[in-house]
Amino acid sequence: xxxxxxxxxxxxxxxxxxxxxxxxxxxxxxxxxxxxxxxxxxxxxxxxxxxxxxxxxxxxxxxxxxxxxxxxxxxxxxxxxxxxxxxxxxxxxxxxxxxxxxxxxxxxxxxxxxxxxxxxxxxxxxxxxxxxxxx
Amino acid sequence: xxxxxxxxxxxxxxxxxxxxxxxxxxxxxxxxxxxxxxxxxxxxxxxxxxxxxxxxxxxxxxxxxxxxxxxxxxxxxxxxxxxxxxxxxxxxxxxxxxxxxxxxxxxxxxxxxxxxxxxxxxxxxxxxxxxxxxxxxxxxxxxxxxxxxxxxxxxxxxxxxxxxxxxxxxxxxxxxxxxxxxxxxxxxxxxxxxxxxxxxxxxxxxxxxxxxxxxxxxxxxxxxxxxxxxxxxxxxxxxxxxxxxxxxxxxxxxxxxxxxxxxxxxxxxxxxxxxxxxxxxxxxxxxxxxxxxxxxxxxxxxxxxxxxxxxxxxxxxxxxxxxxxxxxxxxxxxxxxxxxxxxxxxxxxxxxxxxxxxxxxxxxxxxxxxxxxxxxxxxxxxxxxxxxxxxxxxxxxxxxxxxxxxxxxxxxxxxxxxxxxxxxxxxxxxxxxxxxxxxxxxxxxxxxxxxxxxxxxxxxxxxxxxxxxxxxxxxxxxxxxxxxxxxxxxxxxxxxxxxxxxxxxxxxxxxxxxxxxxxxxxxxxxxxxxxxxxxxxxxxxxxxxxxxxxxxxxxxxxxxxxxxxxxxxxxxxx
Lengths: 135, 574
What we know:
heterodimer; A: mainly alpha; disordered C terminus; B: 20 helices
C-alpha cells in the first residue's frame, strides 16, 4: 500500500540485500507497468471503504443489544476502542523494546567465533540505508 | 503372557505411517509420491469407526505397557495429525535430490507417526518413547536445510527436547514408585516432585514462557517444507498431554495468559517472517493452555478445538511463507514486499490463514478461540479475559496484517517470481477450504468430534459484532501507525530473548570460569612447585629426594583442566 512508510527501498548495487535472491526469482523490469495497488487512488479508495466499515460497526453498537459479560463492556463501543488501544500500545511498546533487545543479525554467530564484543546494539550497522528512524 | 495382545485388525496408527516411511525411503519418483499421499489416507481411514478402549498392550517382565488406547480426545488428534501429514506431504511432494528429498520425506512420515504414537499412548512410558522419537525424527527437517546456522539450531532443538524427555521419564518413574501407576490420567499439581517434572517436561514442548525459545530458534531454520510439519505436531502433542493430565490446574491459566501476551511484542519487531509465525504460535498455544487451566468442559473443548484449528491455519501460514522462501530465497520482511503480483494465489491463501488466526467470523479461529474466552469470563477470571482480549487484538496485528502485508503488499521490493508449484498450491488450497468450512459450519464439522459435552454457539449477534469491532479497530491502529510513520520499520536484526541466557551468557560464564580456573591453576602450580622445590632442597639435606609428590599436583590439575575444557567445548558447541 503506502510505499513511503515501509522500510526504505533497496537500491541495487549500493545496498545489496542480506539474503541472496533464489534461482526462481529476479528483479523487476524497470518498464513494468504499475499494478492495481501501486496506484494511490486505488489504495485510498480501499482505505476509505475501510473507514465506512468502521463507522457502520460503531453505529451498530447503538442498534444491537449486546450481552454484557464484564461491566466495561457496557461502555459504548468498548471492543472498538479496546482493539484500537491494544494495537496502538502493542506497537509503541514493542518499538521501545528494540532499544533494549535489538542486536545485529549475526549477534549469536559472531559471539561463537571470536568471543569478543560484537554486538551492534543500535542495529544501525545493518546497512539499511535511510532507516535512521530505528527507535 | 509375554507378547502383544491385540485384536488382529487393530493396527496402531503409528505403524501405518512408519511403514509408509520405510516405503518412502526405498522408492523414487511417482511411486514415492503415491506412498506419501496414501500413507496418511490409509492411516486416517483406519481410525474411522474405531472403538474406544484399550486396543493393544505389551506385557514384558511383569509390567504391562499400553501401546494403543482410544477415546474421543485421542481420536480427534488422530484425525488431525493424519490430515496434517497429508497436507504437509502434498506440500513437500515436489522435493528433489537437491533438497535431500529422501531424508525429508522419510523423517516427515516418521515424525507424524511419532505424534500419533504419542496421542494413542496409554501410559507415560510409551508416551516417553514417542516423545523422544518426535525430537529425533523431526530434527532432520531442520538439518536438511544447508548451512551451519540450521545445523546448530537443530542441535539446540534436539538437546532441549531430549532433556524434556528425560524429565518426563524421571517423573513417570517417580510417579510409578509413589502411586504404582504410569497410566496417562489426571495428575494435577499435587506437590510431588514427579508431578512437577512431568509438568515441566510437557511445558518445554508446549513452549511455556522462558522455555519457549527452542521454537522460535528452530522453526525458522527448518526447510521451506519441513517447518510446516514442525508447526503441526510437537506443540500439539504437548497440548494434548497437558489436557489429559493437568486439566483444571489453576497455574496454567496464568501461564497461558502470559503466553498469549508476551510473544506478540516480539512478533511486532521480528524481521524473519517465519520467526514471527513462531512467536504467534506461542500466542495461540497460550489460549489452549489457558483453556486447559480453567478445566471446564467448555474450556477444554475450546483448547482442543483451537489446537485442531491452529494446526490447519498455522500450517497454512507456514506453507505460504515456505512458498515465498522456496520461490524467492528470502524470508525477511525487510527484503520482501509486493509479491502479490507474482504469487496471487499464495497471497490469497495466506490471507485466509491470516483471517483464521485472527478469528474473523466465518473463519476457523472464530469458533474455537471464543470458546476459551467465553469460559474465562464464565469462571470469573476477568483480568485474564482482558489479557486474552488484548492478545486477540494483537494477534490480528502481527499475524493477520503484518505477515501478508510485508510479504505480499507493502513496499514493492521489486522481486518478481512465479507462482509456487502446483502441489504447494493444492496443499494450501485444502487448508484454506478447511479453515472456511470449519469456521462457517462448526456444528456440522469440528464440534461433532469434540471430546466433552458442552453446548456452545459462536454465531450470536453480540459475539460477531464485538469481535469484528475489535479486529477492525485494531486494523485502524495499523493504518494510523503507518500513516503517522510511528510503525517500526522492518530491520535486519535479531532481538534477544530468554535464549540469550544459553546462547550468549552461559558460554561467556564458562569461558570466564575457564580463564579463572586457568589463572588459579597456574598460581597454585607455581606456588606448589615453589614450596616443593624449597621443601626438596630442605628435605634433600636430611631425607633424600621426594619430588614425586610435586609432579603429582600438576598431573591432577591437568585432569581437572581437561574436564573444564570439555565442558566449555560442550557449551560453545551448543
